[in-house]
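Reopening this one. Same input as before:
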Amino acid sequence: CLQQAGRLDEAVATFEAAAAIDPKDPEIHNNLGYVLRQLGEADKACAVLQHGLTLRPGHRGIQVNLANALVDLGRVTDALPLYRSAIAADPGNADVRANHGMALEILGRHPDALTEYRAALRLDADHPDAHFCLGLHALAQGDFAAGWQGYEWRWRSSASDSRLRGFPLRRWDGESLQGSRLLIHAAETEA
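Same output, byte for byte:
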């Protein structure tokens, strides 16, 4: 798949060609909107996804992708009803619960966000975004033990800009450094 191979521009062209052939297929619009968002074109993604919702109102995938694109555009309050509708249709989806939590967090609704993160973890105990966001919240509250533990999930979380570098060394796990060397590098930089 072009999308999974990182060939996003080609994926857009392919989905646009498919939409020209079958303009009433909501799945094509959903996939096109998703890829446009990955390319940082949230405004175009919103237009495509909104059209997809007119073709199939209540389509959970389109609702979630549109909600995520709206959050990217800073239209968080517009995204909330879409997340709620998707959760009502599929209450067992941990990704939607975590995304809803992140939107609530942006709006300063911290208790509601925590409820969503915990719901995501009940559904998927290894959900990286929920762990990472709970860790950030714990750090902000001064609970450093839980906070740093949750923060370690940043390496696997889509909610974090941190990425592991490909050093040919194992990560330090806290064992004694006697007789060893430790490479320290920046995990995050300010843009």
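So the earlier flakiness isn't reproducible anymore. For the record, The mean pLDDT is 90.
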